[in-house]
């Protein structure tokens, strides 16, 4: 079998996999790189050189496409946000709050303070899926 034909088959397979399993153009970039190597296989002899060429072209394509892939950072919390507890939060423990219409896991910033159920709280920060809160009565 011809090297160019093998690279075309690999390129088609990788591009088809991108259609089935979206990977933010990773498999498409690898597939297009395989098509380029298929064209260059008439000039570049030997599998070893072709595989190295495929890796180099793939890396260059990833570097070129990086600017088009959206950054997946977590959205920041708005300043001065309030929530309402749905469960009592014991000192150093976690409970639940309603924040922006959704139920969140929450923990008090001060590990020595307990917060009763159905109280207004102030959201200080977010750590993963847990909100760090303080009682609103602290400010009044």
Q: Please state the overall shape, judged from the principal axes of the Cα atoms.
A: rod-shaped
Counting structural domains, the number is 2
Over the alpha carbons, how many angstroms does the gyration radius reach?
Answer: 27 Å
Assign the structural class, choosing from mainly alpha, mainly beta, alpha/beta, alpha+beta, or little secondary structure.
alpha+beta
What percent of the residues sit in helical stretches (DSSP H or I)?
Answer: 25-40%
Which strands sit side by side, in order, in the main sheet?
1-2-3-5-4
Overall pLDDT score: 88
Order of helices and strands: HHHEEEEE
**Strand count, sense and closure of the main sheet?**
5 strands, mixed, barrel
How many beta-strand segments?
5
Distance between the ends: 80 Å
Strand content: 15-25%
Low-confidence stretches: none
Count the helices. How many?
Answer: 3
């Amino acid at each position: 079998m011809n090297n160019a034909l093998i690279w075309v088959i690999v390129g088609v397979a990788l591009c088809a996999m991108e259609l089935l399993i979206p990977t933010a153009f990773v498999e498409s970039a690898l597939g297009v790189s395989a098509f380029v190597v298929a064209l260059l296989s008439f000039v570049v002899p030997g599998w070893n050189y072709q595989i190295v060429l495929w890796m180099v072209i793939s890396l260059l394509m990833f570097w070129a496409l990086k600017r088009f892939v959206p950054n997946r950072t977590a959205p920041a919390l708005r300043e001065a946000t309030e929530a309402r507890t749905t469960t009592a939060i014991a000192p150093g423990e976690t409970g639940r709050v309603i924040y922006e219409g959704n139920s969140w896991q929450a923990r008090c910033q001060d590990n020595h303070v307990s917060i009763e159920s159905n109280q207004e709280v102030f959201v200080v920060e977010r750590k993963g899926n847990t909100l760090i809160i303080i009682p609103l009565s602290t400010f009044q």
